[in-house]
Amino acid sequence: MPQIGQPAPLFSLADADMETVGLASFKGKKNVVLYFYPRDGTPGCTLQAIEFSDHDEEFARHDCVVLGVSPDDCISHAEFRDKHGLSVCLLADPEAEVCQRYGVREVKECDGATKTCIVRATFVIDKKGRLRHALYGVNPRGHAMEVLQLVKEINRECKSPKTR
Predict the structure, then answer these.
(1) Which one from 45, 74, 89, 99 is the annotated catalytic residue?
(2) Rounded Cα gap, residues 29 and 145, in angstroms
(3) What integer best gives the mean pLDDT of the chain?
(4) By CB neighbour count within 10 A (0-12 exposed, 13-18 middle, 19+ buried), where does 100 fall?
(5) Geometric angle at alpha carbon 127, from 123 and 47, rounded to 5°
(6) Mapping DSSP to helix (H, G, I), strand (E, B) and coil, where does residue 9 land?
(7) Of 163, 57, 64, 47, whose CA–CA distance to 123 is shortest?
(8) What is the pTM of this model?
(9) Does residue 163 lie within any of the structural domains?
(10) Fewer CB within 10 Å: C terminus or N terminus of the chain?
């Protein structure tokens, strides 16, 4: 599980258009909001993706990109994006390997069968590639605005003479 202040675990995943997106490509350029969600199309996941998309331009004004990750495949992500007019980048982690690295993958046993579940979580990563915030078990409603405030705080700290 990643620790606050440490480098965020690197990854490269395919987006809804089957283009590879790597976390390292944002280092030195953008803050990153990396949010993990269980499944495309469920009510909570849809609400969360729409709220992040509704504020996508504001995140961009604060040098931040929003990346959503779930175990769904690229085709599912493309359908989800197109159906709801989403602007955030959705990344496919079908083997839940990145979910595992970020500590959001849970394996549960139910009636003798094992089931993999993804905990709804959001990580805020600064331009240096360091993990600044880790939020687990988040409520999708209003979450995008909460995270935007954290991004604004990071930008203020970076501009502060004390942190230069």
Answers:
(1) 45
(2) 22
(3) 92
(4) middle
(5) 35
(6) coil
(7) 64
(8) 0.92
(9) no
(10) C
Dihedral angle of Cα 20, 24, 26, 30, to the nearest 10 degrees? 140
Distance CA 6, CA 14 (A): 25
Query: Tens digits of per-residue pLDDT, 71-115?
Result: 999 999 999 999 999 999 999 999 999 999 999 988 777 777 777
**CATH for 148:** 3.40.30.10
R_g over Cα of the chain: 15
Does 87 map to a domain? Answer: yes
Beta-bridge partner residues of 31: 64
Angle between helices 74-84 and 43-54 (to 10 degrees): 70
Q: Would you call 74 a catalytic residue per the annotation? A: no
Q: Please check whether residue 164 lies inside any domain of the structure.
A: no
* Angstrom distance (rounded) from CA 20 to CA 84: 22
Residue 35's beta-bridge partner residues?
A: 68, 122
Q: Which residues does 162 contact at the CB level (< 8 Å), separation at least 6?
A: none
Give the dihedral sign, CA 136/123/106/44: positive
Domain count, the chain: 1
Class of residue 31 by CB neighbours under 10 A (exposed 0-12, middle 13-18, buried 19+): buried
Mean pLDDT across 37-65: 96
